[in-house]
Amino acid sequence: MARLTIYKDSKNVTPVCNRFIDEYMEGANDIQLKVYLYLLRMLGASRATSVSDLADKFNHTEREIIRALKYWEKHKLLTLDYDESGIPVGIHFRDLDAEETTARRADTSRSLAIYMENDTASVTPAVETIAPMASVTEPVPSRTPAAELITPVTEAPEPIVPVFSKPSYSTEQLRAFKQREETAQLLFIAESYIGRPLTPAEMKSVLFFTDVLHFSVDLIDYLIAYCVERGKKDFKYMERVAVNWAENKVSTPAQAKRFANKYDKKVYTIMNALGKNSMPTLKEAEYITRWTGEYGFDMDVIMEACERTVLATDRHRLEYAERILSSWHNENVHHKADIHKIDELYHRRKASAKQSSDSNKFNQFSQNSYDFNALEKELLSN
């Protein structure tokens, strides 16, 4: 197959470090690459962006965007600043170009030192490979909320240990946990939801919630209930949810409820059905929680309301859907079949009202009084 000739016709480009292409691009997926390259574009143009802007642009959920950002943070290509709710508000890029230059200079200097030392001993100079130096990034005092270039330093950081990693609890630690005063209550709560006694491994998970994550009894109660309601009785799954809450500074059941509403699968399904790809605001989450909780509607009923909303309006869709679902709630709708009954009743009432209106117009017309003798004389005189 013929080789490709590549021409450079435009100077309006976003530079990407060769080291990124050589070392990091292959292991990244589609959305991770999109996010990183787009942030470079915003950085080069000195333009601000946000998680919701990225989600809208690439037609992904905000959760997926945040996951992509954390992927690059995990690979140390950037670091993130978070607000109180755990949403990224600042991005510090790692300067791969500067690091590569520094590493090359260090390599040259080190090789020269080796050559001189060996030359004194009349030995052929050896070749030594110098590993690229890691870097620690420090934020610049003035920065945009979206992304910024930071100056790397060449000191190697300490190994990063996950803040909320689960220890390997020993038998003695588990025995001491079971002797605590509040443990009986925690185990009773867990066993009530699971429907059986806990295994030692599951007890260690509960110990992890209290010992490392510092969850209260009420929060652990809500955590297990939250997972079980979603059909997840696996404590490994509960651990992942718990760590996610801890990373986002969730410390009370009320905070957990608000956080769960942001990322609940049903919430995103409903938001997408209404043509929205962004994370719901608190007000929007309140609407959806009302539909699934207070009104108790199944998803097929809510999807029907969303479909009618999208066909009817392009604006204020949450409010419009709320009016539909509120009226159905007042009409005691429980299943989708009930909607068809209400529709038929509505159409019958509408047809009856129209017929009555037409009849009134006819009666009004026929009841007008005219002096036909006077009309006849007027016609004959013309």
Walk me through what this model shows.
The structure is a single chain. By secondary structure, this protein is mainly alpha-helical. The protein folds into three domains: 13-159, Winged helix-like DNA-binding domain superfamily/Winged helix DNA-binding domain (Arc Repressor Mutant, subunit A, Orthogonal Bundle), CATH 1.10.10; 171-261, Arc Repressor Mutant, subunit A (Orthogonal Bundle), CATH 1.10.10; 265-330. It has 17 helices and five strands. The strands form two sheets. A three-stranded mixed β-sheet has the order 1-2-4, with helices on one face. Helix 2 (30-44) crosses helix 4. The protein starts with 17 loop residues before the first helix and ends with a helix. Mean pLDDT is 75; it is low at 107-161.
CATH fold description of the largest domain: Arc Repressor Mutant, subunit A
* CATH H-level superfamily of the largest domain: Winged helix-like DNA-binding domain superfamily/Winged helix DNA-binding domain
Main beta-sheet annotation: 3 strands, mixed
Query: How much of the sequence is in beta strands?
Result: under 5%
Write down the Rg.
34 Å
Question: Count of helical segments?
Answer: 17
Give the domain tally: 3
Low-confidence stretches: 107-161
CATH architecture of the largest domain: Orthogonal Bundle
Please tally the β strands and state the result: 5
Average pLDDT, rounded to a whole number, is 75
Spatial separation of the terminal alpha carbons = 98 Å
Following the backbone from N to C, one meets helices and strands in this order, namely HHHHEEHEEEHHHHHHHHHHHH
Strand order of the largest sheet: 1-2-4
Give me the secondary-structure category: mainly alpha
Helix content: 55-70%
CATH class of the largest domain: Mainly Alpha
What coarse outline follows from CA principal-axis ratios? Answer: flat
